Amino acid sequence: MATGHIPEATVARLPVYLRSLTELAAAGDATTSSDVLAERAGVNPAKVRKDLSYLGTHGTRGVGYDVRHLTFEVSRALGVANTWPVVVCGLGNLGRALAKHTGFTERGFPVVAAVDIDPAITGTTVDDVPVHSPDQIAELVAAHGVAIGVIATPGNAAQETADLLVAAGVRSILDFSSTVVTVPDHVEVRTVDLSTELQILGFHLHQDLPPEVGKTP
Amino acid sequence: MATGHIPEATVARLPVYLRSLTELAAAGDATTSSDVLAERAGVNPAKVRKDLSYLGTHGTRGVGYDVRHLTFEVSRALGVANTWPVVVCGLGNLGRALAKHTGFTERGFPVVAAVDIDPAITGTTVDDVPVHSPDQIAELVAAHGVAIGVIATPGNAAQETADLLVAAGVRSILDFSSTVVTVPDHVEVRTVDLSTELQILGFHLHQDLPPEVGKTP
DNA sequence: GTGCGCTTGTGAAAACGTTCACGAATTCCG
DNA sequence: CGGAATTCGTGAACGTTTTCACAAGCGCAC
C-alpha cells in the first residue's frame, strides 16, 4: 500500500500517535503494538492498524511496531521535519496566551511575530515575540517565510485580518475568532471555537436532563 | 420528522447557525433562506436544510425561514436556556486566558471558579474568578452545581485533574492539555489540542511542497 | 384562479469513516 | 520440528455524513 493519499480523519490522529510514540520511546520501549497505541490514543486498535497502513509503514506480525522506526514514519508523513513560522494576530487574552505558548515552538511552529491594532502595544514584545501593527503583516510574512496565520482577534476584525494574511501569501489559517472567514481555495482554514465546544457539551448535558415540564399537551 | 435524535455532525453545526441567526436578527432580517445560512456558516445549502429538518422545525417553501422562530428552535435544541457553570483547572497562560474570557459567560457558561496547584495564587482572583486549590474541587462543584470542567493544566497533571473532576460529579470535560484523558462512560470529553491543529495544517503545507530530493532511487 | 418562480423537505445515491473478522507472518516453547 | 500464541494487514460489512435531485408547497402577478 503506497503513501498515495491519507484520509483526513487519519491525518488528524497522527499527531496523537506521534505523541504516544514519543512517550513510549522515553519510557524505553523498543517495540509496541496496535493495542498499546490504541489504548494511549483512546481509539480502537483496528483503527490504529488501518491508519498506520496508509503510511506504507510495516510492523511485524506477531511482534508489533518498532517504536523508533514508526516514529520516523509518522514524523515523515506529517512533515514534522519542516519548521513553519507562525504569526499571531490579535493580542487579547487568548492571543497573548498563544503568543506565550511554548509548545508551539517545540513542535516546529515558532511564533515569530504578533500583530495587534492597538498602537499602545505595537513596538513592544510579549515574551520575546515582537508586536507589530497590521499594516506590517505583508513584510512580516515575507521576512520570516510565514505560512500559517493564527487569528485571535475579536470577531469583527477576523475577516479583515484573514484578508491581510491571504494577501501576504499565508496558506493556512487557524481561526479562534468564532466567525466563519472566507478565503480563496488554495488557503486552508481550521476553526477552533471554544464557545461552540462548550455548547456541544451543553447539548448533551441538556439531552440527559429529565424531560421538561410545561410542554404543550 | 420528530426531534428524536440529532446526529453529532449536526449538533456541532447548530452553534454556528445560531450565531448566524443572531447576526441576521441584529441586521433586521425577518426571514432568511438555507442559501443565506449556508453562505454564512460556510457549508452547503442542502446540509443546512437537512440539519434543520432534524429539529422538526419548519420553514416555509417559497419563502424561507422565520429568523425569530428558527432562532428559538435552534436555541431550544441546544438547550441554551440552561446555564452551565464551569470551573477552569490550571492557570497557565491558556487557563488564565480562558478564565478571563468573557464570551463564555455570554453564552451561558460562567466561569465560577478556577483551580491551580500553586499556593502562591490560591486565594487570589483572576478577573473576579476566585482561585482555589485542587483539593477544593469537590466543594466547588457541589456549591456551584458545576457540570463542566475545563482542563488547562500541563499534560502530566491532566489525568489526575480529570479524576478529581469526575469524582466531584462533573459530567463533561473540555481538555486543552494535549493528552488523552480516560474517564467513565457517563462522562463526555472533548479535546482541543492546539499543537495538533497546527500539525494538521503543517501536514497539508508539507503535502503541497514539491517532492523532496534525495529519495532512494 | 391559473401559472410561474422560489424555496423547503426528503428520499436515494455517493462518499467517507469505523469496526469486524480472519488469513498470514512471526516468535516461542517443548 | 510442530504447534500454540501473537499481532499485523486488509477485505468486507456496517454506520454515518454529505450531496444530489426533485416533488411539494407557497406567494405573487395578472
Textual characterization of the structure:
The structure is a homodimer of 217-residue chains. Chain A has 2 domains: 71 residues, Winged helix-like DNA-binding domain superfamily/Winged helix DNA-binding domain (Arc Repressor Mutant, subunit A); 113 residues, NAD(P)-binding Rossmann-like Domain (Rossmann fold, 3-Layer(aba) Sandwich). In chain A, the strands form 2 sheets. In chain A, strands 5-6-4-3-7-8-9 form a 7-stranded mixed β-sheet, with helices on both faces. Chain A has a two-stranded antiparallel sheet with strand order 1-2. Helices cover 45% and strands 14% of the residues of chain A. The first copy, chain A, contains 9 helices and 9 strands. Chain A is of the alpha/beta class. At the A-B interface, helix 1, helix 5 and helix 9 of A face helix 1, helix 5 and helix 9 of B. Chain A binds a DNA duplex (30 and 30 nucleotides) through helix 1 and helix 3.
Topology:
The structure is a homodimer of 217-residue chains.
Chain A: H1 8-26, E1 31-32, H2 34-41, H3 45-53, E2 65-66, H4 67-78, E3 86-89, H5 93-100, H6 103-106, E4 111-115, E5 125-126, E6 129-132, H7 137-144, E7 148-151, H8 155-168, E8 172-175, E9 188-191, H9 194-208
Parallel strand pairs in A: 3-4, 3-7, 4-6, 7-8, 8-9
Antiparallel strand pairs in A: 1-2, 5-6
Helix pairs in contact in A: 1-4, 2-3, 7-8
Chain A binds a DNA duplex (30 and 30 nucleotides) through residues 1, 7-10, 33-35, 44-47, 49-50, 52-53, 58-65.
